[in-house]
Design brief:
five-stranded mixed beta sheet; 294 residues; 0% helix
Length: 294
């Protein structure tokens, strides 16, 4: 039922001829959750629209939603990049098989209220199917969007239980944390942790360093047997020292620094301090041409 009234009760504002036009826009094919479009692969390039979309009962959206689904081939990061025309696209990721049982996982949207570009990241778990909802922002609620999803796997030692072992009194390891993630229960971090473990053969001071890395990682050393009972022993930017007890297993994390930098990591572990560690034990240097190797 459509009612047409004038601007006021007075002529000419309140009465007169008019033309009424009605245009019905069909809903997109993936308007309803049950009709979500299945995406697959490690790189997806697609387009979509929420023009004419609706909110069905129980829909967690705000304006006009459409749906996709995608299953993660491995644990890692899904990078979301999108450009809208009149749409401020917001991609929200859920788990769950019905619209009434969805669990929010993460979202990616414009960086400001009037933006229409998206550059975000969502952590995903191997084998998990994600329900992906596209909605708009209140400044740009509907329109068209072109988007791509790029999946990058996490490092092999991303999770605590998959930490790499270090052995010996001197150990060197390499790795990277560019696509590393944070698992549930991890100690507070900057979000890009990878893990090693090492068991002390002797009781002695231990030095950790990252010389040769492409950035300055944040290092931490813990005792404990699981994420739930870790005890922080030492923490430092690029290097640190701690006192090891023979027979104790230690857990070492390398993380992004406070500036968010990530990259290639070269980790060096050395047991015992140099003989000239203290000032009183300094080593004399003699001659006019000196070459020292430490």
């Amino acid at each position: 039922h459509i009612e047409v009234t004038g601007f006021s009760q007075d002529i000419p504002d309140g009465a007169g001829p008019f033309a009424l036009g009605i245009t019905q826009t069909p809903a997109p094919p993936n308007d309803d959750f049950a009709n979500r479009i299945v995406l697959s692969g490690t790189f997806v390039s697609a387009s979509g629209s929420n023009i004419g979309a609706t909110l069905e009962p129980g829909d967690p959206g705000t304006y006009a939603t459409v749906w996709w689904s995608w299953t993660a081939p491995r644990t890692g990061s899904l990078y979301v990049r999108a450009t809208g025309d009149t749409l401020g696209p917001v991609f929200t990721f859920f788990t769950g098989e019905s619209i009434s049982s969805l669990t929010w996982i993460g979202s990616a949207g414009p960086s400001w209220f009037y933006g229409t570009d998206v550059n975000g990241e969502v952590h995903v778990e191997q084998g998990q199917t994600y329900q992906i909802m596209l909605d708009g922002m209140y400044t740009h609620p509907t329109g068209n969007v072109s988007f791509n999803f790029q999946f990058d796997p996490a490092p092999g030692n991303d999770d605590f239980t998959n930490s790499y072992a270090l052995t010996g009194l001197i150990a060197v390891a390499t790795g990277q944390n560019t696509n590393a993630t944070v698992e549930n229960g991890e100690p507070p971090s900057n979000g890009r942790t990878v893990w090693w473990n090492w068991t002390a053969a002797v009781s002695a001071p231990v030095s950790l360093g990252t010389s040769g890395s492409s950035f300055s990682p944040m290092l931490a050393v813990y005792s404990g047997t699981a994420l739930t009972n870790l005890v922080l022993l030492a923490k430092g930017l690029s290097d640190l020292q701690f006192n090891a007890v023979a027979g104790t297993e230690y857990h070492i994390s390398a993380d992004a620094n406070n500036g968010g930098e990530t990259g290639q990591i070269q980790l060096t572990l050395a047991v015992g301090l140099p003989a000239n560690d203290n000032f009183t034990n300094r080593t004399p240097l003699l001659g006019t041409n000196i070459n020292v190797i430490e």
